[in-house]
Amino acid sequence: MAILIDKNTRVMTQGITGKTGQFHTRMCRDYANGKNCFVAGVNPKKPGEDFEGIPIYATVKEAKQASGATVSVIYVPPPFAAAAPKAFRYATCCARATKCRDGKPG
What we know:
alpha/beta, Rossmann fold, 6-stranded mixed β-sheet
């Protein structure tokens, strides 16, 4: 099994202000070296705010440019799940009631 992330990985959370996004971002950040890894969150309705010190941006593009994020974890409603993962080489998408094949590009 390959290790795809390490202590230098910069993680962005899409859907950081939702209940699930907040919970998992907090749990991951509090584990090991995660505090230094989480660098940005995305919510188009809450740019300029922050979640426990993690800045929130309106778009993935804006967050990626400002933070240097290299990986994304995605906690968004099912209608937005299919488009979300395409911005990064590595992404994890957790959307309720979405079939795995629905989230794959192309």
